[in-house]
Design goal:
The chain is of the alpha+beta class. It has one domain (1-14, 61-209): 2-Layer Sandwich (Gyrase A, domain 2). It is built from 8 helices and 6 strands, in the order ββααβαββααβααα. Helix 1 (16-31) packs across helix 2. The chain starts with a strand and ends in a 7-residue tail after the last helix. The relative contact order is 0.20.
Length: 209
């Protein structure tokens, strides 16, 4: 049994200047103000769009992200309708195989310290599940049948593509204090990265960590 931290990785090749200039070009069609495009006008124009709530223009650009999180968090991610998803399959992945280290990989719960009794109970339960999963596989059970006992804490990898408007919506919802702690954990990681790579689009979104 292996316990890891969640992680987020941007898979898109992001060029902030190109994205900004593209969005300005697309958006100025609405106002027929293409003649006002200058070398430095894109960021100011995008700020105006966001301030005025004209975020439909942002849908013309997208970003692709890989989340490494637990299955419970992935169930929340896929509730966002306007996106494309590719996820690690528990039907076809046999975690008893050598390519997976012959073990389950689990995401550490961020809300318990390792010294707490709750964490010890969780870890003990995960070990029992791994033992039972391996026993089922050794008895000839298929992975798609054995997965019925796999926990929400199981590590999964899910590739998510969202347009920039939907990504803003996702981050506003999922970095909120009302979000599940483990959902906030990965959403806040993603927001920090996007603020660095695409500040003009995400700088106004605040998270409380």
């Amino acid at each position: 049994m292996r316990i890891i931290e969640p992680n987020v990785e941007i898979l898109s090749d992001i060029n902030s200047d190109i994205i900004s200039k593209n969005l300005e070009l697309y958006g100025r069609v609405c106002y027929k103000s293409e003649d006002k495009i200058t070398k430095d006008s894109a960021n100011k124009f995008i700020q105006m769009l966001i301030k005025n709530g004209h975020e439909s223009v942002l849908e013309h650009e997208k970003v692709t992200v890989k989340f490494i999180c637990d299955r419970g968090v992935s169930h929340e991610i896929v509730r966002h309708r306007i996106a494309s998803y590719s996820q690690e399959s528990t039907r076809y992945c046999n975690y008893n195989k050598e390519k997976f280290g012959n073990e389950l990989t689990l995401i550490r719960p961020c809300f318990w310290d390792e010294e707490q009794e709750q964490y010890k109970i969780w870890k003990d339960t995960m070990q029992k599940i791994e033992d039972s999963y391996n026993s089922l596989i050794l008895l000839g059970t298929s992975p798609e049948e054995a997965r019925s006992i796999l926990p929400n804490s199981l590590k999964t990898e899910i590739v998510v593509t969202m347009n920039m408007r939907e990504m803003r919506h996702f981050l506003k919802l999922r970095t909120s204090l009302r979000a599940h702690p483990q959902m906030r954990e990965v959403a806040c990681k993603l927001l920090r990265i996007l603020k660095e790579k695409l500040p003009i689009i995400f700088v106004d979104i605040e998270s409380v960590e």
